[in-house]
Input
Amino acid sequence: MFEVLGDFLGLTAPPKGDFPVPESFLNGSALRKDSVREQVFSKVFRWRLPDGHTREPVSVEVAGSFTNWQKVPLTRNGAPDAWQVMLHDIPINRTHHYMILVDGKPAYDRYNDGLAIPRGPEEERHQIMTDKGPRVFMLFAQTK
Output
């Protein structure tokens, strides 16, 4: 039947028992660990004005190891009176470092998972000063 349909459409059937095998399967690269999709999760970052402050910032952004330290703007949500953004595709099973930037300056994030010593120039550029020295925020990206 395939021959009749193949002749009608101008197709030919592959020879029986002779199926082309991609080169990547022959050298094993298709089965390597790096070809498997990395597991990720989503996270809502939220920032609120500190108690007693009434002047709204011009911009609120988040930057971190999960954005390659590129700034991502948070949008103002009037109902909870907060700025927020949901970021997707954050790799799991590692600890990420990040900062909240308000009008371009590092600001405290009350929702952080902890504080870490900055590593590298990007983290040092975004650090805050604490009583224990410069720090950046941590995000524990663990599976549950």
Remarks:
- The chain has three helices and ten strands.
- Residues 2-9 form the longest helix (8 residues).
- The first strand starts at residue 40 and ends at 47.
